[in-house]
Automatic annotation (TrEMBL):
This is NAB co-repressor domain-containing protein. Residues 97-118 are annotated as: Disordered. It comes from the Eukaryota.
Length: 132
């Protein structure tokens, strides 16, 4: 094994320990492709050829999980997603402070005396009960 080079050392060691790797031949791969595409002729796994079934055995064993029911009987699930209220968005103090600063800048710029939409920011946040 000394004369095979460092790049092939792992492959040769693996072959010495476990034996040569048996890869499916191109004919089996081609037949697997053809049989998986032709669903009318091969409706289930028993209709597949033996070597094709053996090649797909691990995938077929794991495919049973897709047919299982995801919900459990007797458990009530929500009929729709929860409603998002706009005042719940202002949960952190830093977000509230940054919005207050933006509103202050808008009111300073406008200086027309009209009531801005930012006047109610603190009222919404304090009534929701998320900040102390």
């Amino acid at each position: 094994m000394e004369d095979i080079g460092a790049e092939k050392w792992d492959r040769r060691l693996n072959e010495d320990i476990f034996g040569p790797i048996s890869l499916p031949v191109d004919d089996v791969i081609q037949r697997t492709h053809e049989q998986l595409i032709d669903c009318a002729k091969y409706p289930d796994s028993e209709a597949l050829d033996a070597d094709v079934r053996q090649l797909l055995s691990t995938a077929l064993a794991q495919s049973d999980a897709y047919a299982q029911r995801m919900t459990r009987p007797g458990i009530n699930y929500a009929t729709k997603l929860p409603r998002v209220r706009c005042e719940l968005r202002r949960r952190t103090k830093s977000l509230e402070e940054s919005e207050a600063e933006q509103c202050a800048l808008k009111t300073d710029r406008s200086s027309s005396g009209a009531v801005s939409s930012c006047d109610n920011v603190n009222g919404l946040t304090n009534t929701s009960g998320y900040l102390q």
